[in-house]
């Protein structure tokens, strides 16, 4: 039986301003009394959905050993995609039920691989509803966007 203390609790968020446009992602990882905050972004053209996918990918890829993960996202796209749709997409050669190519297939495959290393339980949380770590993930996503834009400005 896995003790609750052995669970890594992750809250993620991502977004763009405007969408599509520059974007950022953020993640808060908690285990015991350890907390890790992560963020990143893209200064070029990306989408809300890509940033929502990057957050759990980067958080899961940062874990150094297989663990039980409670992953909280405010994105129904991410939660439904990974828990309901992805196996059908894969079975259908990464085509939707409407026979269209799956969008963001590169990130869905990367998320599948990241999940395969762990036991991930997915939870949806309403965005901007006062859940502290979801609010913090939103702040981190904004920071990731701002840092990406600042780095891009320095490079020009």
Core attributes:
alpha/beta, Nucleotidyltransferase, domain 5, 5-stranded mixed β-sheet, 5 strands, metal-binding, nuclease, cytoplasm, RNA-DNA hybrid ribonuclease activity
Radius of gyration: 16 Å
Query: How far apart are the termini?
Result: 54 Å
Domain count: the total is: 1
Low-confidence stretches are none
Main sheet characteristics: 5 strands, mixed
CATH superfamily: Ribonuclease H-like superfamily/Ribonuclease H
Structural class: alpha/beta
Helix content: 40-55%
CATH architecture: 2-Layer Sandwich
Put simply, the count of helices is 4
Strand order of the largest sheet: 3-2-1-4-5
Describe the protein.
- With about 160 residues, this protein is of the alpha/beta class.
- The protein has one domain (about 10-155): Nucleotidyltransferase, domain 5 (2-Layer Sandwich), CATH 3.30.420.10.
- About 45% of the residues lie in helices and about 30% in strands.
- It has helices spanning about 50-60, 75-90, 105-115, 130-155, and strands spanning about 10-15, 20-30, 35-45, 70-75, 120-125.
- Strands 3-2-1-4-5 form a five-stranded mixed β-sheet.
- Strand 2 (about 20-30) and strand 3 (about 35-45) form a beta hairpin.
- The chain is globular, with a radius of gyration of 16 Å.
- The mean pLDDT is about 95.
Short overview:
Its cofactor is Mg(2+). This protein is α/β, with parallel strands linked by helices and 156 residues long.
């Amino acid at each position: 039986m896995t003790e609750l203390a052995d669970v890594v609790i992750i809250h993620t968020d991502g977004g763009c301003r405007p969408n599509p446009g520059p974007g950022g992602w953020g993640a808060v990882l908690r285990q015991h009394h350890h907390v890790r905050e992560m963020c990143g972004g893209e200064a070029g053209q990306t989408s809300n959905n890509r940033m929502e996918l990057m957050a759990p990918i980067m958080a899961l890829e940062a874990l150094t050993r297989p663990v039980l993960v409670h992953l909280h996202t405010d994105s129904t796209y991410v939660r439904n995609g990974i828990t309901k749709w992805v196996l059908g997409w894969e079975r259908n050669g990464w085509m939707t039920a409407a026979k269209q190519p799956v969008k963001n297939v590169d990130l869905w495959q990367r998320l599948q691989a990241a999940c395969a290393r762990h036991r991930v339980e997915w939870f949806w949380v309403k965005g901007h509803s006062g859940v502290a770590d979801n609010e913090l993930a939103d702040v981190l996503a904004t920071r990731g966007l701002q840092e990406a834009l600042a780095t891009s400005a320095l490079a020009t």
